[in-house]
Amino acid sequence: MADPTDHPEHRLGLQRDNGFLDVRFEHHDRTRAVHLAHRAPCRMLFPRQEPDEPLLGVFITTSGGMAGGDVLRVSVEACRGATATVTSQAAEKIYPSLGAPSRLSFRLRVEAGAALEWLPRETILFNNAHLERRVDLDVDPGGSLLALDLTVFGRLARGERFTAGALHDVWRVRRGGRLVWADALALSGEFAAQIASPAGFGGATAAGLALLVADDAAAWVDEARARLARGASRAGATLVGGVLVARALGAEPAHVRRDLTDLVSWLRAARSGHPARMPRFWSI
Fold first, then answer.
1. pTM, to two decimals
2. What ranges in the chain are assigned the alpha helix state H?
């Protein structure tokens, strides 16, 4: 078996990030971040809370993106009674790699009686980027998690497409510790044909995923399908293991972004009474 450290980044002794963020929200007269630990380049800021919005945490990577060999780990926990939204300051950029993967992991934990919104900005994959990402979501019965993920295949404004490199993306959703939904994607080498194929991504330049993990997820599936059917991207919604799963593919990232953020904005208003909009950092 090949040595996982046998990459040019390691042989050349290039400095690489090994950062983490660990935050826990609890309810004490209001939701507060009672535990916050981080190591560069990861940080979380708490801008002034809007009166009609839950507590907002903004995830920041001060490095401006991930290079081959970087490792970032993020853990967010919402305890009973807490209501919080987590977003990111800007899109996460995955830069070209000399061979080593960028490793990114997210662990979200929601207890019964808590509600968490995980609404980061998009991830942009530069050509020849190598990304290994794992997302683990564990939501107790009686808890609620609304999550969004957007991935853009290349620096499109520069005429660059993500057609070579590697992407290994693993998602696991658990309800009270029991696995209810699993998904994995693996692309490596030269995969332009897979991106272009009707049986693959159908020529899409962006893909998106929205998840609602909650006791009432089934009640929102029909309307979610109807809303996505009116959008500009190829999109659909279904119920798997009690989880509402919505996906979208589009030739224009703006279409995928608009269709799924419209869906998320509607869900957060219809279910929780929050404003039918994304966190204000999405408009910056």
1. 0.93
2. 8-11, 192-196, 221-229, 253-272
